[in-house]
Fold:
Amino acid sequence: AQKVTQAQTEISVVEKEDVTLDCVYETRDTTYYLFWYKQPPSGELVFLIRRNSFDEQNEISGRYSWNFQKSTSSFNFTITASQVVDSAVYFCALSGRDNYGQNFVFGPGTRLSVLP
Amino acid sequence: EPEVTQTPSHQVTQMGQEVILRCVPISNHLYFYWYRQILGQKVEFLVSFYNNEISEKSEIFDDQFSVERPDGSNFTLKIRSTKLEDSAMYFCASNDAPGLAGHTDTQYFGPGTRLTVL
Structure:
């Protein structure tokens, strides 16, 4: 069965600090996709990144970076120099290769509060 | 940039009433989904839809729920007789052709409809 764990329920940081959100996943699929979504206080889900299980290259996009470690089944997300606008709930999600609905599984989310 | 839209943004209904939540997926997408998020909890899969039929559904998606693509653009979720526990944010999502070379498994989400059952 697919499972996504985000052990950090809530994190508070002061603006300009770096923060890392952890994501650990479980799957038996050999091909899968990992995602991060942001849910700001307004409630919508905003796609941030998708990572193919065959591509372990880390990715950087502005202040965001992602560290995919297949050996530890982790896909961690780092925000550098955090800003108040980064305050949101962040969800890690996992999608298997052959089943595009039932096993699109979300983690429980990490609520990030960035204080001015 | 194309986006998924949902209407209404907020629906208030009485217990036992029928509600229809509407979604317009991205126009060239073929796979459609509904998810539910009870306040403060994680996002849960309800149903996926492809080629005018349900391809997968979760245990949450019981006989009270149905989905339909009534025309070429809309995708609806109907709850036949709402219960208090149906109060949640409902998200629609779509993607183009997951699993095919050159396509992506990324599901793009709409802004959600907040359903409140009184």
